[in-house]
Design goal:
about 40% helix; about 325 residues; alpha/beta
Length: about 325
């Protein structure tokens, strides 16, 4: 009993020390854009001697710089990844994409928002870090952010790209697969209508008569953005990247299944592919692939740790590029 108590005390002390080092200097930053300001957090390791900086690019929807969403999802995955990378000696910029979090965007312009705008903002973050004097900069994108990271790496001078849970197919194909997994058994008629809408958007045309059940996904205010996303094929994007690439996928990911990562890896055979068998889409381990169970556990619990091996894979990549 005494030995167990001593071990427990040592673990608590170690955890406290790890948390202390994670609390390296964090500062709020603002990056001027023609429409306003991007707001973000720059985390700098103790002593401020980092020469490599990463930009964490969030996934789709109202996902903020920490990985949380106004839709009720609270995994805090990006903040945790930032802490881990900072402890390893890397500076980390995570930011709220325009119209999300504190990056306020003129409401009258939201309907005109495009995927290219998100790419331009990510490039602005890279340029900000260059102006801060960092020698190496690597975009780290999650989900939709993985495609943005790939586009950034294809367009500007960065030293690598990390794609976490990134799609290997165009958005219309991804959405069709995701909707099929939820609708095929419960409402085939709604699935048929969703497919017709996706086909129309993929052809570059707006869609009318959106069913109430699909308004959140296909409302007319969001259609221009979806159309702009569907112009990008992740496979073609990754083929244009000349810098080192790390692709990470999770075996428990119910949104972007591992075949997407394998497709990306085939398109860029010199990339590094890491498969974490238990990792879910929110970068945390889950024993179940049941959608409702994941939504009520890993998607909603900010106290659960990152998937085992995720931070190590990214750190090893950043160390060796």
């Amino acid at each position: 009993m005494k030995t167990t108590s001593v071990r427990l005390l040592c673990c608590l002390i170690a955890a406290f020390l790890m948390r202390s080092t994670a609390a390296a200097a964090e500062s709020d930053i603002r990056i001027a854009r023609e429409w306003g300001e991007l707001h973000g957090t720059l985390a700098v390791p103790e002593g401020g001697s980092a020469t490599t900086a990463v930009v964490i690019i969030a996934g789709s929807g109202p996902t903020d710089r920490n990985g949380n969403s106004s839709l009720g999802l609270q995994p805090r995955s990006y903040a945790m990844l930032s802490d881990a990378l900072c402890r390893a000696g890397f500076a980390v910029l995570r930011y709220d994409k325009r119209a999300i979090g504190r990056s306020a965007y003129p409401p009258e312009r939201i309907a005109d928002l495009t995927f290219d705008d998100y790419i331009d903002d990510a490039v602005a973050c890279v340029e900000f870090l260059r102006s801060e004097g960092y020698e190496r900069i690597v975009p780290v994108g999650h989900s939709e952010g993985a495609l943005i990271a790939g586009c950034v790496a294809a367009r500007c001078d960065v030293d690598g790209a990390v794609l976490l849970s990134g799609a290997g197919y165009r958005l219309d194909i991804i959405l069709n697969r995701q909707l099929a997994s939820q609708l095929m058994e419960v409402d085939m008629g709604l699935m048929v209508r969703a497919t017709a809408i996706l086909n129309r958007l993929a052809s570059g045309r707006m869609a009318d008569d959106i069913p109430p059940e699909l308004q959140l996904l296909f409302g007319r205010h969001i259609q221009p953005f979806l159309i702009s996303c569907m112009r990008y094929d992740p496979v073609e994007t990754i083929r244009g990247i000349e810098t080192p690439i790390l692709i990470v996928t999770g075996g428990a990911d119910i949104q972007i299944t591992p075949d997407n990562a394998h497709r990306l890896h085939e398109a860029a055979p010199e990339s590094r592919l890491v498969v974490l068998d238990a990792m879910s889409h929110v970068l945390k381990d889950c024993a179940s692939t049941d959608r409702m169970e994941q939504l009520s556990t890993v998607y909603a619990d900010s106290t659960l740790p990152l998937s085992a091996g995720l931070a190590d894979a990214v750190i090893e990549f950043l160390t060796t590029i």
